[in-house]
Write a structure and sequence with these properties.
The chain has about 250 residues and is mostly helical. It contains 12 helices and 4 strands. α10 runs antiparallel to α11 and α10 runs antiparallel to α12. The longest helix has 29 residues.
């Protein structure tokens, strides 16, 4: 399967398996089925129990079209809403363990998801032909919306162990050192750990130093007040985060 190298903000390349065309299509089908089922349920409630047809009786055609556009907007915005709330996933993507990520190593933002959603009009137009052609000829299976937003859809099915997650083994009597870590997010700590493990395995002192300095800057800590080596400092940050957030193995 195709691999994509994502360069993180600390200039570390991480390799991910690209979601294949079949996974993306099946995820799309599941999301479509969910939307259809929800649409039938909501329509049944609105027209069977709330008698919405009586409410709009006598309206002109333009007003009726506008009203239907409003009540159908959640279904139209379905991918945008879920990708924003679920950090790059929809229910369908979650089932097949695939996710939208930025190719520059940063967490995709709402504007990235918005661009992908807007380009669905092109990708999924003309019987899905533009999007399918783009994904077929591109070795990373990118549709036009991915290219425009600088994102890719990766597979999360790789074998994962403790070194690939934010989890860290801590003793029951562990005493944390830096309460400032609570200002970090799961994604921040995941990126810190991924970069640290790779730099340590490659004995890249320069990356470890850059990473330590970035953490110090983010948490507003003074290096002179920390009697730890850079590696030990980073390890402590990860463990402290696990302690305060209750994430343990």
């Amino acid at each position: 399967m195709a691999q994509i190298d994502i360069n993180t903000s600390q200039n570390v390349n991480l390799s991910f398996t690209v979601a294949n065309l079949g996974e993306r299509l099946l995820a799309f089908i599941i999301d479509t089925v969910i939307k259809v089922i929800l649409g039938f349920i909501i329509a049944y409630i609105l027209f069977k129990f709330l008698r919405l047809d009586n409410f709009i009786k006598g309206w002109d055609q333009f007003s009726i079209m506008g009203f239907y556009a409003i009540i159908s907007s959640p279904f139209i915005l379905y991918p945008l809403i879920f990708e924003s709330l679920m950090e790059g996933q929809t229910p369908g993507k979650k089932v097949f363990k695939i996710k939208v990520v930025k190719v520059d190593g940063f967490q995709a933002s709402f504007s990235d998801y918005l661009i992908r959603w807007i380009f669905r009009l092109i990708d999924f137009g003309f019987f899905f032909i533009p999007g399918l052609i783009s994904m077929t000829v591109n070795k990373y299976n990118l549709r036009l919306g991915d290219i425009a937003s600088g994102t890719a859809v990766i597979s999360l099915k790789n074998d994962i162990n403790i070194s690939h997650t934010i989890l860290e083994k801590i003793d029951s009597d562990y005493i944390p050192t830096f309460p400032q870590v609570i200002s970090l997010t799961d994604n921040d700590v995941r990126i810190i750990k991924e970069n640290f493990v790779k730099a340590k395995n490659g004995q890249d002192r320069q990356i470890i130093t850059k990473l330590a300095n970035k953490i110090l800057e983010t948490l507003k800590l003074n290096r002179d007040d920390i009697p730890l080596t850079e590696s030990k400092f980073i390890e402590t940050i990860i463990k402290d985060y696990n302690f305060y957030t209750g994430k343990d193995v």
